[in-house]
Amino acid sequence: MAQPTKHPIRVLIAKPGLDGHDRGAKVVARALRDAGMEVIYTGLHQTPEMIVRSALQEDVQAVGLSILSGAHMTLFPEVIELLKKEGAADVVVFGGGIIPKDDVEKLKQQGVKQIFLPGASTKEIVEWVKANISART
Amino acid sequence: MASKPQTRLSKSYAEWRSQSHASQKERKDQFTSLSFRKQPELVTSENIGAFAEREQLGYPGEFPFTRGVQPTMYRGRLWTMRQFAGFGSPEDTNRRFKYLLAHGQTGLSTAFDMPSLMGYDADHAKSRGEVGREGVSVSTIEDMERLFDGIDLAQVTVSMTINCTATAAMAMYFAMARRRGISFDQLGGTIQNDMFKEFIAQKEWICPPAPAVKLACDIIQYCAESAPKFNGISISGYHIREAGATAVQELAFTLADGVGYVEHCLARGMKIDDFAPRLSFFFDVHNDFFEEIAKFRAARRIWAKLMRDRFGAKSERSMILRTHAQTAGVSLTAQQPLNNVARVAIQALAAVLGGVQSLHTNSMDETLSLPTEGAAKVALRTQQIIAEETGVTNVIDPLGGSYYVERLTNEIEAEALEYIAKIDALGGMLRAVETGFPQKEIAEASYRFQLEVDARERSIVGVNCYQDEQEQEIPTLKVDFEAEKQQADKVRAFKAKRDRVRLEKATAEIRSACRENRNVMPALIDGVDAGVTLGEISDIYREVFGVYTDPGLI
After folding, report:
1. pLDDT tens across B322-381, in order?
2. A127 touches chain B (CB under 8 A)
């Protein structure tokens, strides 16, 4: 019997909120793509609704949120809630940006699986995604 | 008898090298700058390249201004210590302004929050979670008045970092001055108002590039005609560099942006010497010490020649590149944050040796949150130590004539000119931005840099080498969510109490100014005075000029 084909991991990299700091999001998107994943980048200034719509349409297994405006405590939980509401609680949400330590723990309690802070290497992020998100067969 | 001093070396560079290097090894195969430029081991009179003191340097305060824009430089007056500040409500930021002035700061610099920067009032749905978090929240003229309460606008120069909504903020500032009875010719300061770099790097926008640049030039024109001491634009490389550009890309794209604005203003019928003296600049100052110094020197030389030779400026004031600088936020690390104090000091020293007119030094905690009062004070004190203790202000352009620095200045100039020629060939900066040329160049450089860091070809102390087991904890600033609620309530109350008739008339006048392609500033100044908000002005722009969305290139 033939082995079921393993599809590449599909990830949505999204920029919620109003800030335009997209250097990190773009570097992470390229690094994941170079590691063989299928990466969709939303572009800037996305509302949580827009992000969740893209996640469903693109049928991704993970959403990586990048924010540097300080609005993470409002916008990250909204993405998680909306995913749940749409029956897509299995989509893994991770994130990064300028996020104070205290907030990292709170966000994890609210369902953000991992937060990468300034200084995280692309290698570290790629490895974490590979270890925590399983590709569909 | 005393022997005559020898003017020639005893052997050639090649001879010295072949003799001395036979048994010596170097630490690395290649030594490269932060911007991927291969560095020579040594520069002497033999390999300095074409160097002509008269043409390339001149005297300070004289063409081509390589050695500085004033004849006395810091012996005459120190640079302006201008720390960027803004968070929470206008009252919160007003308190920080007064704190900084009380500690010897000599100019103010305003950071606005994301809703203000993107054209949404504090009570808008898209502002949720963002109000007062990355800067101060300003939606109405009353917010502007609270922000500058008790500050004498005729005495302190004020910088405002705001771009796609710059027309609204500028109008509020002028309307506030008018209410206080201060004439516009007494107002000194700078508004960033640089839309090219928004599309290239900072990514705060409302409408597409062409109308955005038109609005920016409305401010340049209005200031040139009505507020002659106010810089109507600060052509900014800072954000371009922070987005990952090299030093040469930062320099070239910024100057090409300047060329774009000059061409637009000339096409309106403005005269070069009427507005060029008030074009100001803003550059990053990063870790590679000599590369940064050479960048500032090359910037002045290129701009002077562009203005004189390409645009036919007659006044020397039009040829002078005056610049603000800020230390590189992107170079700061969240790991071992106290190390950032050292980085900032070295970068600030490079800015001073590069001859800048004003400087912001970052606080050590800025990779964690907005700066605390204590961290902001250390950053200001860093500038004061450079100014008062190091002696570098005693001599003008102390590195002038250094074989290495002069060669580097020449190389950076040549490389930047190549880029500028490329942008000219694309049809100018507006076209280049629309096709994404600078955006793609920056994304490439930024990815290359990150891969080199990840591969440890580049060292970042505390991040990929000399790491600590135990993390350093420093205090961070917390902006509570109360500010957001209060600001939103204040905006709603403000909107409710406005004189409807006056408001509608003012709104209609702004709309027609936009539609009829007139300068929007007069209508906006009256409009904000009648209560039109920043978000409402932005809505008119969205309606008349259309909305720009991120192409999302990676």
Report:
1. 999 999 999 999 999 999 999 999 999 999 999 999 999 999 999 888 899 999 999 999
2. no
- B340: number of CA atoms within 13 Å, CB side? 27
Whether B100 is covered by a domain: the verdict is yes
Range of the domain at A103: 10-131
Which of chain B's residues have a Cβ under 8 Å away from the Cβ of A41? 552, 554
* Angle made by CA atoms B394, B344, A69, in degrees to the nearest 5: 140
Specify the CATH number for the domain of residue B312. Answer: 3.20.20.240
Distance from CA of A2 to the nearest CA of B (A): 36
* Burial call A95-121: b when 16+ CB within 10 Å, e when fewer: bbbbbbeebbeebeeebbebbbbbbbb
DSSP for A39-59 reads EEE--SSB-HHHHHHHHHHTT
A131 neighbors A113 (Cβ within 8 angstroms): no
For B134, which of A13, A69, A118 is closest by C-beta distance? A69
* B387 within some domain: yes
| Residues of A whose CB is below 8 A from B114 | 17-19, 69, 71
Asked, for residue B10, whether it belongs to a domain, the answer is no
The complex scores an ipTM of 0.86
Say if the Cβ atoms of A123 and B133 lie within 8 Å: no
Based on the structure, what is the number of domains in chain B?
Answer: 1
Give contacts of A42 with chain B, Cβ < 8 Å. 552
Question: Within a domain: residue A136?
Answer: no
User: Residue A74 sits in a domain of what CATH number?
Assistant: 3.40.50.280
Our count of domains for chain A comes to 1
Count of CB contacts below 8 A, A vs B?
Answer: 102
Domain assignment present for A121: yes
Give the residue numbers spanning the domain of B84: 58-454
Please check whether residue B47 is in contact with residue B329, taking contact to mean a CB–CB distance below 8 angstroms.
no
Is there a domain that residue B138 lies in?
Answer: yes
B138 touches chain A (CB under 8 A): no
Q: Model-level pTM?
A: 0.94
Mean pLDDT of B493-513: 98
